[in-house]
Design a protein that fits this description.
With 260 residues, this protein is an alpha+beta fold. It is built from seven helices and ten strands. A six-stranded mixed beta sheet has the order 6-5-7-10-9-8, with helices on one face. A four-stranded antiparallel beta sheet has the order 2-3-1-4, with no helix packed on it. Pfam families: DUF2310 (PF10071).
Length: 260
Amino acid sequence: MYLAELRFTLIADTEFSLAEQAIRRYLEALIFNGQMLGREFPTAFTGDAFCSRLVLPTADALSGQHASARVKAAEQQLAAAGLGYPQCQLLGQDLMSQQTVTELPAELVLFTTYADTCSPLRCANTLQPVPLFWLNPAAADYEALIRWQLQFQALDEIQLQQDRVLHKTAENSLQHYQSKLNRQGRKLATQLARQNQRPVWYALYSGSATDCQAEADKCCPGCGGNWRLATPQAGMFDFRCDNCLLLSNIAWECQSNSGE
């Protein structure tokens, strides 16, 4: 991933509120198209321009060939706010981020955690992030997918806090197969698989279990089949169901208790 600076030069008299709205509209369009990562974009006024710092999944992420209709429309609206065409300067690789794949994998997995700022679509074998704009979206862009990711990350952070509030509510949403969050995630994975003619697995989180002795032998929650792997996939997933396109892990609390 790359750290970049985006410069919006003033080309006409404008008001800060108009400029701020136009820049925010444009950057949010980039986020929902997967061309920009994260939720924050610090922006400073330098006297003759507004400069925003952002993280990109690839060096060419802001190329026009990747732009959605929403991005193009937001870009056109910058001029109405007195701003010129955004100029991008790559500052270098972001040393604090995960590195994306170099080519589109044959199999993908929908997987994220509270700490991630990268794409929620990963290589199913290495868990390296996959730029969303390399794929065919199920809609106009990836807003539904990004909003699903934000909900998942918020719940994941809640259930990991030491002084936890609504812990079980958050954990149940994350690990119950039929929770609204997981139904939505599986639907998104299915749509992306159909649009891109390749398997998109869904990673089902497992944090706790009622019986750690039986956890390693649990059945697939989707079809009831045997899904235990002899060797964990991507060093994380102990279970894989080819029928339901599900991946999962032995509950983390059971791994901790057994020293696995």
